[in-house]
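2024-03-11 09:14:02 INFO worker-7 job=invfold-0412 stage=load source=structure_tokens
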């Protein structure tokens, strides 16, 4: 049975994962939410591959063994998380079974990578499933992967806990100097006011952005270092799971958005041993006068 025509509103949805879930339901594709695949990517086989590729402007398809794990997969998962809010770019995975039914071995062969020594590899498609425009089989380092994506797609980078609209305002003031701090705060407050009250989690995160923007408006860039030092100290305390999760999300927001690491790539170690708090500690300066309010 042919895949039904996708409604226009799906393709124009602001949040790509919501539209992707509907599309996958109609086409018989399963979005990855658990197991060995990256949360937010989609799993493809020979049939669904030809249904999904034409639907989106850019699709990055990773071919690898089924249920991949290890450093390479960890780096790919980070890449997926940073692209989840981009409405035009999709990341997909083809998991190839080496034994048994050898599921997806046919698709891997069709893509010209039948042997596991050629995996992992990423192909770029732009609406044409019969022709890839680029491929990447180099080191699976997050920064290298991001550079590869940037070469072939105009993307909106964010992080799992970030809010894309707010990230754009931070970038426009702190790193591109297109707007003043006052304009950044006003625009952020307007965006917050337009956000649905039922989306409590997003509103709370946006309120944190506004709080940080106001601090920057008052004292400038040092506000970021002061806040990061405060969060590092808080994360060293005995916290409830809810508080720990909250502070880690805020740490990610500071590191990725307010410190510019959504756009400025820093070289990473191959072994993933650093936590978000460790990364923020490197950016932080000690400030004993900072209030440690929970």
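2024-03-11 09:14:09 INFO worker-7 stage=emit residues=294
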């Amino acid at each position: 049975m042919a895949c039904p025509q996708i409604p226009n509103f799906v393709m124009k949805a602001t949040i790509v994962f919501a539209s992707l879930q509907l599309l996958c339901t109609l086409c018989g594709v399963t979005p990855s939410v658990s197991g060995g695949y990256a949360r937010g990517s989609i799993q493809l086989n020979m049939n669904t591959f030809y249904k999904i590729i034409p639907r989106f402007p850019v699709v990055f398809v990773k071919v690898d063994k089924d249920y991949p794990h290890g450093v390479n997969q960890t780096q790919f998962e980070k890449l997926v998380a940073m692209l989840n809010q981009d409405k035009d770019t999709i990341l997909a995975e083809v998991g190839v079974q080496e034994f048994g039914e050898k599921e997806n071995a046919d698709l891997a062969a069709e893509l010209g990578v039948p042997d596991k020594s050629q995996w992992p590899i990423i192909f770029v498609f732009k609406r044409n499933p019969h022709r890839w425009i680029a491929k990447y089989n180099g080191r699976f380092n997050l920064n290298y992967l991001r550079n590869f994506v940037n070469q072939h797609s105009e993307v909106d980078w964010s992080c799992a806990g970030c809010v894309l609209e707010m990230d754009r305002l931070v970038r426009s003031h702190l790193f591109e100097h297109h707007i003043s701090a006052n304009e950044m705060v006003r625009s952020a407050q307007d965006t917050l006011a337009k956000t649905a009250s039922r989306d409590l989690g997003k509103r709370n995160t946006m309120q944190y952005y506004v709080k940080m923007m106001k601090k920057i408006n008052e004292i400038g860039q040092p506000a970021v270092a002061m806040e990061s030092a405060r969060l590092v100290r808080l994360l060293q305390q005995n916290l409830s799971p809810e508080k720990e999760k909250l502070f880690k999300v805020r740490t990610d927001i500071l590191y990725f958005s307010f410190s510019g690491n959504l756009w400025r790539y820093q070289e990473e170690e191959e072994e993933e041993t650093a936590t978000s708090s460790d990364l923020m500690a490197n950016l932080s300066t000690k400030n004993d006068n900072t209030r440690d309010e929970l």
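2024-03-11 09:14:09 INFO worker-7 stage=report msg="The radius of gyration is 21 Å."
2024-03-11 09:14:10 INFO worker-7 job finished
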